[in-house]
Specification:
Elements lengths: L10 E5 L10 H13 L3 E4 L14 H13 L3 E6 L15 H6 L3 E4 L4 H11 L3 E3 L13 H12 L4 E2 L5 E3 L12 E3 L4 E4 L1 E11 H4 L14 E6 L6 H12 L9 E6 L8 H9 L9 E8 L7 E3 L2 E6 L4 E6 L1
Parallel strand pairs: 1-2, 1-3, 3-4, 4-5, 10-11, 11-12, 12-13
Antiparallel strand pairs: 5-14, 6-16, 7-8, 9-13, 10-15, 15-16
């Protein structure tokens, strides 16, 4: 099940299912608002979006109410999350999945939002989207790729052949918008050759793994797994998190693996990642590509969780086609 494409004039609701909008600088909120309004969207904010507790979040009740109201409101066509965080999985037992299924909307965010995306897809079949947060649109430089891919996935009908960005960054842009550090992109590379087509499942790996053993874990049958993690996931952590996913029932039916670009501070280098992947016999027959434009570096493309992907990983090229 997928929600209708967004159109100019549609309303997008901003919700804070993880970190609060209250931690975002007012000028950045205004910048994100201006960009979305420039594409013709009407932007509204959830009642509790700014509510903030000692965890830079808000109560389960407030966050659940905002999600339900966003899906319930017939004027709302798209839903953007404020930011990631650490606690979106607190909401999963409190959500009315029947309400969500009856009122399909385009929900987009990444990182901790993987818990919501995976659970909603598992419980309702509704495609959700791993892509920019509302706060991401405040980035003044180096954000064109992210915005363009968001618009293509949300508003246009054609499949998206994902091209690598010319440059990428891993800096704290939200602290200093002027003194940015951009690096040339060499594009994705192949770890295991092959081609496959299947259902896109995944997002942030350590968050996806929170769903293991629960009723919210998506099926891995015929999956093309998209996984990424942030600077806190060093080689040892990524290795064991990936191994945990491999141990899940049904992993033998996975068709391919796409790995997002790691942050420098993670210490996961190309050689280290190749060693990790090649140490796992369950992956050696799958096409595996890495250093793809999604995750906690910039820019990123938007992909549909529950949508479709065709991955072709050859010795010197990686082709990735995604569609709903």
């Amino acid at each position: 099940m997928k929600a209708p494409k967004l159109q100019a004039g549609d309303e997008i609701r901003i919700i804070s299912p993880s970190n609060s909008l209250g931690i975002i600088a007012p000028e950045q909120i205004e910048a994100s608002l201006r960009l979305l309004e420039g594409y013709g969207f009407k932007v509204s904010f959830a009642e509790h979006a700014y509510e903030m507790d000692q965890f830079s979040s808000s109560s389960v009740r407030s966050r659940v109410e905002d999600i339900h109201e966003a899906f319930r409101d017939p004027a709302v066509k798209g839903i953007l999350t404020t930011l990631g965080g650490h606690n979106a999985n607190q909401l999963l037992r409190e959500l009315d999945y029947g309400l969500i299924a009856d009122n399909p909307k385009r929900l987009c965010g990444f990182s901790d939002i993987t818990a919501l995306s995976g659970a909603i897809y598992r419980k309702t079949g509704l495609i959700t989207y791993s892509g920019p947060h509302f706060s991401t649109f405040a980035m003044r430089r180096g954000n064109e790729y992210t915005v363009r891919h968001f618009i293509r996935m949300m508003m246009e009908d054609e499949p998206v052949l994902v091209q690598p960005s010319a440059h990428w960054s891993d800096d704290a842009w939200f602290l200093d918008q002027e003194n940015r550090c951009f690096e040339p992109s060499e594009g994705p590379y192949t770890i295991c050759s092959g081609s496959a087509e299947g259902i896109i499942i995944g997002g942030n790996l350590c968050t996806l793994n929170l769903l293991q053993g629960t009723e919210y874990m998506p099926s891995l049958k015929d999956a093309i797994l998209f996984v990424e993690d942030d600077f806190e996931s060093g080689p040892e952590v990524f290795d064991r998190d990936l191994q945990s996913l491999i141990h899940q029932p049904g992993f033998e039916q996975v068709r391919g693996l796409v790995i997002g670009r790691f942050q420098r501070e993670s210490g996961v280098t190309r050689d280290m990642l190749i060693t990790i992947i090649q140490s796992k016999k369950e992956l050696l027959h799958l096409p595996v590509a890495a250093d793809v434009n999604f995750g906690h570096t910039s820019p990123i493309f938007t992909f549909p969780v529950g949508g479709q992907a065709k991955l072709t990983a050859a010795a010197d090229t990686v082709d990735l086609l995604i569609w709903e």
